[in-house]
Amino acid sequence: MSKMDDFxxxxxxxxxxxxxxxxxxxxxxxxxxxxxxxGRQGRIVHGYRPQLWIGxxxxxxxxxxxxxxxxxxxDRGLKPGETGKALMFLLSLPPAVLQVGEHLxxxxxxxxxxxxxxxxxxxxx
Length: 125
What we know:
Blueprint: H1 3-20, E1 25-32, E2 51-53, E3 66-72, E4 83-90, E5 103-108, E6 111-122
Antiparallel strand pairs: 1-4, 1-6, 2-3, 2-5, 3-4, 5-6
């Protein structure tokens, strides 16, 4: 078994535990930015942790990013240019901040890697 297979198995186990515990999360539709348009080169897989931006900025005009964890709804993940659904867990932002229909942008550092939309919210307090 490869290290990637080990990682995927660990992430699937973590996802099952989070769902079983009733962890608040969202279903989102994602479109990954194409590599030739400045997006990432490889696909995203279970447990991908991009920075989420929901339009907030500091007084200095710097973007405020939040930590998130994504689980694509298919086992092969999503590659640049593809659109698909994923489960999203917020790691540093209260879930009540997001609304169904809200526009999302995902970053790796300064690079925008995906855009998305909140489709549904599950187990919110």
